[in-house]
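User: I'll paste a sequence; please echo it back and then give the predicted structure.

Assistant: Echoing your sequence first, then the prediction.
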Amino acid sequence: MNIGIFTLLSLALALASTGCAPIPHSHYYAPAIRGTVTINGAPATHTKIYMGSAITKTSCEKDPIKTTTNEDGEFVIGPIKEFRLLVTFFGDPYEIWELCAEHKGEIKKLLQFDAHFSPERLEVKCELTLEEETHIEAVRGLSGLCEASNS
């Protein structure tokens, strides 16, 4: 057997036995979100939208990713991701992220994700006048003031 192939196979076997494999990929800490924000059913124009992630030590109040809704109340924000060379087979990654809007000078949490494996993309419809958060059945670990679906 060629020494180069033997070395490569030995390295792959050693990594696999530690629970890792050399599979380059993007790991999502928070998804790309496309959505609409309304106030009493009307588009929330020029509303500031914030996203933060526990892994990046950001929040809606501290160094968030920012965007603003357009004339129709629509926005696109995220994702928060990183390129990784290795995949781990043991231990599921746990992600925590939040999506907020600034309304009447106050930051209001629209969505919070608190579970394993954040989705890569979401479509959301949010109403700023809602007060009570609900668990969103379409996406495990997601709760907030929006309707959401994996896109």
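The domain at 3-149 is CATH 2.60.40.10 (Immunoglobulin-like). The radius of gyration is 19 Å.
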